[in-house]
Each structure stands twice: as structure tokens, then as C-alpha cells.
Amino acid sequence: MSRKLALKRLTASDLTFFKWHFRNRPAGNQKAFNLDTRIIADTLYPELGKPSTQRTPVYLLAVHLFGPGLVQPYTLARKILKQQKNWRLNGEQIDNPDDDPERYNILAPGDFALFEFSGNDRPEAVKINFVASGIPADSGIHRELARRYPSGSMWVLQETSVADVLTAASPPPGHPLYSWIESDALEDAALGGATGAATINSRSAGRGISPEDFIRSRQAAEQTGVTGENLLNAYLDYEHSQSRISEFEWTASINAVAPFDFRVTTTPGDTRVIDAKSTSGTFTNPLHLSLGEVYRAVHGPELYDIYRLYEVTEETAKMRIARDIGPKLRGILDQLSALPSGVTADGISVRPAFLDFDTDEIILASSYGEDTD
To answer: What is the C-alpha to C-alpha distance for residues 27 and 21, in angstroms, rounded to an integer?
Structure first.
């Protein structure tokens, strides 16, 4: 799903949101971060730009602060509100944590804050990663950000932009920004993948991710699965309207524990079952199959196909198909069946290259076929 990322260059008045800066480096009475309306309302959250019944629209949100440097995250509650024409991250001033009483003192005008907002129609939470030029662990990232964004105050970011900055800057292991480019690994770990969990731990000096981030990743992975099934349902409905399939059933919509998602009858009268495997990442991300799915694929009675949906967004996805995967999985199921008594494997992770996927790429959309004869 599309991530809501932004970069802000901090000003002296932004820094007065921190209690220490307000007292020791006064720069007015703002006590908030200014958020560019073009970014927060016009681009990331268009709903915020619509007329509101509130005289002063206010949205409470959880704020997770990372950095500067390699420090542990710090969580608090604040609010986003609109004051006249400006949006601000506001609320009680931010104090240094009790266990790190000078954490934010080193921040200076010209330092950076990277934002990741959560929430569909309005912000519900935000991760903020501060990057300070005065901290060695941040200095390379700071130079690279300053080089790429020499003018302006706030920008929308793509995940690839963060990855490019980290590649160029090579910060030390454990830098919290690494977690911003681990979306594929996070998705894999959230779905139970050992490879994703190992990747996260190896790149974050064993610190892993917080329970809150893990829960958000799991929820995002589940939502991607739901979105993928909706897009595939629209595609099959269109194929049915074109008489390329005679009938289909969205089985998972009526049985959440079914070992497949759809049952399809083709025009020659052959019935097959389909398992939709969706990812917001690339085609090559691991597939996760439950033991029940593996067993059904091997033993039938219907032929079992995998429809791989990738680069899934709210409106579109790409798709490739692996047909009749049972023979490929028979040997694996035999090995799983040979485990000692009392031991059962719940599922497996499979790289798509292991299965025989068609090379054809099908583009799906929520409005699939509306403009097609």
C-alpha cells in the first residue's frame, strides 16, 4: 500500500516545540512544527482540504520519535490541527526523556525530520526520525539530504528516495532509518517469514522492531491481502462477463479458513481453485502457504493455481499465474508428513521462482473492464 512519507527541514521556530530549545534558544512562541499545506493536505491527506464542520479541525495521533542518532524510540501523544491556513503538529511541548535528558538539545536549524504518517483519510499516527548534523551516526545522511534538497522546507518522499539516501550515506548498523526501507522484510516477517525476521535483525544490530510497528506491519499485510482479493474478484467478474469463465465463487468471503480463495469453472467446464497471494512489494517477495493450502494443492480434487498479485495499491495491482502447483509441492508435503509424532509444520515460505509462473503480466484495477468492449 502507498506509504505517506515526507521530509522537513527544521527551522528555529520549529525547534521551539522542544522545551529545552524554547527556554534556551528562543525563536518566538510557535511551540509546534509547521506542516506545509501542499504536503499534508493537498498531497498526503486530501480529505483535510475539504470543508470541515469543526471551527478548528484537530486530529489526535500517536507520535513515535526516533533519533537523532541511534537512540531508542520515544512515544507520546500530540495532535495535528489547522490554525488559520496553516497545519501544525502541536500540543504539549516535547521534553527530553528522563533517561536521556539532553537528547534533543543537539538539534539545530537546518537539521531534518523524516515523517511517516499512518491513517487512510486522516492522520492517526506518525513516526518522526530526526537527523542531526552534529551526530556522527547522522552526519552522512544529513549531507546527502542537504545535497538532494538544497532549497525548500518540506517535500513528499518515496521509499526509493530513502533507500537511495541510505545507500549513498552508509550509516552504521542499527540506524533507525533502515527500518524505513525494510517494507518487504517487514511484510514477510509479519506473515511469519523467518527470512524477513532475520533480515530485519541483521540490519538493525539485533534491535528488531517495536511491537507497535510489528502490529502495524501485520495489519498492513492483512489489508494488502484483502485489497488483492477485491481486485482479483473484479477481474474474475469481468472475465465472467466476457464468457471466458462460466462461473466463479469468492470462497474466502464466506469461509475465512478455506484452503483457497476462489473456485472457478472455465468455459470448457473444468473447475479449478485459486489462491491469491498479494504483496505491496515486488513479484519476487516470498509466498506464504499454510499446510492446509499445500495439502489441498497436492491432493485436490481440483487443480490448484496461485495468482500472484504484486505492487498492490488501493486501486491497482500486477498479476502473474502459476497453474497446477500440486506436483511441485508433493515432495515438500512428503517431507512435512515425515516429521516426528507430535510435530506439525503450520506452513512454508516459497520463492516465486520455485513455481512455474506464466511470463504474462496482467494489470488489475478496481474498475477493471469498465472501458472495455
So the answer is: 9
For residue 373, the Cα-to-chain-centroid distance in whole angstroms is 36
Taking the C-alpha atoms of residue 326 and residue 302, their distance in angstroms, rounded to an integer, is 10
CA–CA distance, 313 with 366 (Å, rounded to integer): 10
What DSSP line would sit under 70-103, residue for residue?
TPPPEEEEEEEEEETTEEEEESSPBPPPTTSTTG
C-alpha cell at 159: 521509499
User: Exposure pattern of 320-341 as b/e (b: 16+ CB <10 Å)?
Assistant: bbbeebbebbeebbeebeeeee
CB within 8 A of 250, min separation 6: which ones? 229, 233, 236, 261, 262
Confirm if 20 and 96 have CB atoms less than 8 A apart. yes
CA–CA distance, 61 with 122 (Å, rounded to integer): 10
Rounded distance between C-alpha atoms, residue 126 and residue 190, angstroms: 20
Question: Global pTM?
Answer: 0.61
- Residues in the chain, how many? 373
Of residues 318, 306, 320, 312, the one with CA closest to residue 281: 312
For each of the chain's 373 residues, which pLDDT tens digit applies? 467 899 999 999 999 999 999 999 988 888 889 999 999 999 999 988 887 666 677 888 888 899 999 887 888 889 998 877 789 998 889 999 999 999 999 999 999 999 999 887 888 888 899 999 999 999 999 999 999 999 999 999 987 888 889 889 988 877 888 877 767 777 877 788 887 777 767 655 555 666 766 776 788 788 889 999 999 999 999 999 999 999 999 999 999 999 999 999 987 779 999 999 998 878 888 999 999 999 999 999 999 999 999 988 778 889 999 999 999 999 999 999 999 999 999 999 999 999 999 999 999 988 765 544 3
Task: Take residue 76 and report the three cell numbers written for it.
Answer: 507520546
Residues in CB range of 52: below 8 A, 6 or more apart:
82
Report the candidate in 110, 117, 149 with the shortest Cα–Cα distance to residue 131: 110
Locate 223 and state its grid cell: 489489508
Rounded to whole angstroms, the Cα distance separating 294 from 347 reads: 8
- State the burial class of residue 257 (Cβ atoms within 10 Å of its Cβ: 0-12, 13-18, 19+): exposed
